[in-house]
Amino acid sequence: MLRRFVLVVLALACFAAPSLAAAQDVKPDKLAYDAAQAQKKRGEHRDAAGAFEALALTFPDSPLAPNSLVEAGVCWFTVGRDALELHRVTPKAREAFDAALGVFDRVTKQWPKSGVASRAQYMRGSTRLFAGELELAEAAYEGVLTNFSADPNYLAKALERRGFVRRQLMENAAAVVDLKAYLERYPKGESAAAVQQYLELSALLDKPAPTWTAEAWIQGEPTPLELCGGRVVALYFFASWCPNCAKELPFMLDLEKRFTPRGVAFVGAMDQSRGQTVASLATYLREKKLGFPVLQHAGAVSTGYGLPSIPHLVLIDRAGRVRWRDNPANLADWTLEKLLAEDGHEVLEGK
């Protein structure tokens, strides 16, 4: 109801624009578009979404109408992303994501040949991704690659994103195909460095996890890999001095709280850099209320896993193989749920 009221008010404002437009020799649809863009730049995404939708409603024949709807969808997507809590979808986020998807679907159906349809299709994938709907996100990015191959604007982005989603889905062989294709087709693309890094990280995926040897166990009972057999393991690399680790700390606490009772074995790994001692790290862990076993290492563990940066989370399946690795901010519940549902023997036999 509130959204409809906003649309009506903005539509009336657009109807009132002709006199101002005449004075400035600017078309009223362009005035409305520029005003909505100004709201978007100010970070007023919800209001901007309504303004863009009002423009398309008021000036349906305007050449700006399709792009205005895409911009509205992007604004709704941003509202939804900002409403996430601990990377999880809240009711407010779900509402905004649904609004975004509705707008993007309208564009791809109503203007399938327009120059903005590929962007709308690409944003459908991003919306599904942030909503935690990985399989639908993969399909949406696939739609860009198959239906808009003549439009180069979003092909590279969609290829990189499909590879990203496939990694989250643990479709690692298919993800590697996408990563290599990206580097072959777009060697100087904006994501080339990140793609190269992920390609290097993929070398360990679907292979036995390197064992870890602790210089010392900072807290908890010693938990070497061989004692974790038959369990899903989350090996978390982090440091007390790392700002991005601090940013992801609430998420890791929530993850531990939700998945430890379901059988996931969390193990932390901290190095000896910057003068950290067992005593200082023990104090840090108590203060932050991290409850799982944490080891200190001199670099051997991180070297074995080829860390690009921290924080870094590695998921190991029941058969002891590395199945997923990335910044924990990119972990979807879907991935852990999938690992928990697998049987270790089936994984070993490749079924």
- Average of the residue pLDDT scores: 89
Q: What top-tier CATH class of the largest domain fits best? A: Mainly Alpha
In quaternary terms, these chains amount to single chain
- Look at the helices and sheets and give the structural class: alpha/beta
CATH homologous superfamily annotation of the largest domain: Tetratricopeptide repeat domain
Number of strands: 6
Q: Tally the helices.
A: 16
Per DSSP, what share of the residues sits in E-state strands of 2 or more residues?
A: 5-15%
CATH T-level fold name of the largest domain: Serine Threonine Protein Phosphatase 5, Tetratricopeptide repeat
**Percentage of helical residues?**
55-70%
Order of SSEs: HHHHHHHHHHHEEHEHEHEEHH
Low-confidence stretches: 4-23, 345-351
| Overall outline | elongated
Query: Major sheet: size, sense and barrel closure?
Result: 6 strands, mixed
Terminal CA distance: 51 Å
CATH architecture of the largest domain: Alpha Horseshoe
